[in-house]
Design a protein that fits this description.
Layout: E1 3-4, E2 11-12, E3 18-19, E4 24-25, H1 27-33, H2 46-54, H3 61-92, E5 96-98, E6 101-104, E7 109-112, E8 121-124, E9 139-142, H4 145-166, E10 170-173
Antiparallel strand pairs: 1-2, 3-4, 5-6, 6-7, 7-8, 9-10
Amino acid sequence: MSKTCAICGKKVGWFINTQLFDGVLCENCASKLGIQDKFHSYIVTVKTAKKAFNDHKTIDLKKLMVEQKKSRKEAKETENTNYQKQKQQFLKDGSFKYGKLYLDDKAQKILFDKSLLEPFAFYDYSDFTGYKKILIPGTREKHHGIARGITGGIIAGPAGAVVGAVTGGKNTLW
């Protein structure tokens, strides 16, 4: 499957092209635009490349990267400010908190708080049509054997560690 240049329409090979965000350029068009860095050319869109080509201008990848980084930073700061305002409103309203979930009955909103790997999310009560309670039966172990083994080892040496690890744990069905 061959690709075509987004500007001139010429077929380009797999390795002899410059990859854009949403297309490719042939070597000739890329050199006319001043794109030498093939590793960072993916930040340029076809629309931007065509506009620069028609205006007989070159594309400064470093400048474009700085601008995009700045705009992403501003967007993240705006999002964080919005999150902080919303969360303060949840706390001010005395929302019910369960783990990462905040329920604000006054504003009729739900907040799934952010964690290390997950972003936050806001929802209205009206977004949900219902719920189903799911209980998964299982066992719960009380008094970990490792902790008991360490304690037994401290008190009575190696024999106490073995006895502590083997005895005393409870498995309960819930």
